[in-house]
Automatic annotation (TrEMBL):
Residue ranges occupied by any BPL/LPL catalytic domain in the UniProt entry: 138-336
PANTHER family in UniProt: BIOTIN PROTEIN LIGASE (PTHR12835), BIOTIN--PROTEIN LIGASE (PTHR12835:SF5)
NCBIfam families: birA_ligase
Listed name of the protein: BPL/LPL catalytic domain-containing protein
Cross-referenced InterPro entries: aa-tRNA-synth_II/BPL/LPL, Biotin_CoA_COase_ligase, BPL_C, BPL_LPL_catalytic
Alphabetized PROSITE patterns for the sequence: BPL_LPL_CATALYTIC
Natural source organism: Phrynocephalus forsythii
Gene3D superfamilies reported in the protein's UniProt record: Bira Bifunctional Protein, Domain 2
Length: 410
């Protein structure tokens, strides 16, 4: 009920539904209640926004945060020293490395007084003075157990997108150095199909560089990288002792889900073949601690604690980025040795599609059961009484499981 009071008086809203209530704070609710309320979060916030707007209040988003300088961080001092030596040889006199997307200007000390633009970003190489409210580098190092991947971090509090930060380095830097770009916030986060968004604090945002020989098992099946990356995120949580029942799952081809209900994150892969080597950038973003307006991993942990009377600790983005990179390196190694069959049992353990149906071709197309993915990473389905076939997305749908097409040669 909306009730204005005369011409110059105030206005009041009487609302029977408590649209503002945090789902976590409700007592006496079931798991089903939690799911229904979380799924409806966005709608409830939209209604609340309309109500407040009717009262004359501004519900516009806060100002977009300003870009910040980058920091070059290495997990080992020897790696950092050798990288600085390489930079001394491979940057120009002003410390610049330029690519088609942006220029990085490497400076020894605090770059906070330098102008930061989308096309020119200062990179502070001194590690001793680094600190961040939202990224604990010691926590990252404690959870990173890799031979190569993720050992050198290009970190930003706020950047346009991590997908561009490594562009000028990946083809030049020594092969033994494993680069990853990590940000607290992105103002132009990038997804499949060119979708962009502003990423809030609380998400784990990164772009990892890997190299894959063309002649290798994975080099012959590059689409599998997105499956391995999304699987690595799920396993990074569910492999922690006590966290194995946190209902985090993978959705083909590159999404991270709570159960089969709500999306928590996704993966974007760009690959370039140079000579006999693929240079691959794996962009990954998943919600760790931002509860609204959707859901985050820590919501699932707290809900598990309530349902099972446990006391699992909430997790942080720095921890989970490091753990997911560690898992991914192990998955890649297994795939290179054993091929798809080396990783598919774990993938199927966590995927949301078991026993599910999809519609082929269009809304009027036949229904088919999802049965798995083929050796190239594409979805396999089976119509009633017919053979198993591989299907491809039509390239036009936001949901990759809509309007699946059966290739003509089949």
């Amino acid at each position: 009920v909306h009730l204005p009071y005369e011409e110059n008086g105030g206005e009041a809203i009487l609302c029977q539904a408590h649209l503002e209530v945090n789902v976590q704070n409700l007592s006496g609710r079931s798991s089903d209640d939690f799911n229904l309320l979380k799924i409806s979060n966005a709608k409830r916030y939209n209604v609340l926004t309309k109500i407040l707007t009717q009262l004359g209040l501004s519900c516009e988003l806060n100002d977009v945060p300003h870009l910040t300088p980058l920091h070059l961080l290495s997990s080992e001092k020897e790696i950092h020293c050798s990288l600085l030596e390489w930079l001394g040889i491979n940057t120009d006199r002003s410390g610049l490395i330029t690519s088609s997307k942006l220029s990085l200007k490497f400076v020894a000390s605090d770059g906070s007084q330098m102008e930061v633009t989308p096309s020119l970003m200062p990179v502070v190489t001194e590690m001793d003075t680094f600190s961040s409210e939202h990224f604990n580098f010691d926590m990252y190092k404690q959870n990173l157990h890799t031979n190569k991947l993720g050992k050198v971090v290009l970190f930003a509090e706020v950047t346009s997108t991590t997908m561009d930060l490594l562009d000028g380095l990946i083809y030049k830097i020594p092969r033994e150095i494993g680069l990853i770009a990590i940000a607290v916030q992105q103002i132009h986060g990038r997804g499949r199909g060119g979708n962009t968004w502003l990423s809030p604090v609380g998400a784990a945002l990164s772009t990892l560089h890997i190299t894959i020989p063309l002649s290798s098992q994975l080099g012959q099946r590059i689409p599998f990288i997105q499956h391995l990356a999304s699987l690595a995120v799920v396993e990074s949580v569910r492999s922690i002792p006590g966290y194995q029942d946190i209902d985090l799952r993978v959705k083909w081809p590159n999404d991270i889900y709570y159960c089969d209900l709500m999306k928590l994150g996704g993966v974007l892969v760009n690959s370039t073949l140079t000579g006999d080597t693929f240079h691959v950038l794996i962009g990954c973003g998943f919600n760790v601690s931002n509860s609204n307006p959707t859901i985050c991993i820590n919501d699932l942990i707290m809900e598990h604690n309530k349902a099972k009377n446990t006391n699992l600790k909430t997790l942080s983005a720095d921890c989970l980025i490091a753990r997911s990179v560690t898992v991914l390196e192990n998955l890649i190694s297994t795939f290179q040795e054993k091929g798809p069959n080396g990783v598919l049992p774990m993938y199927y353990k966590y995927w949301v599609h078991s026993g599910k149906q999809v519609q082929l071709g269009s809304n009027k197309g036949p229904m088919a059961w999802i049965v798995g993915i083929d050796d190239s990473g594409f979805l396999q389905v089976q119509e009633e009484g017919k053979d198993v076939v591989t299907v491809h997305p039509d390239g036009n749908s936001f949901d990759m499981l809509r309007n699946l097409l059966v290739p003509k040669h089949q």
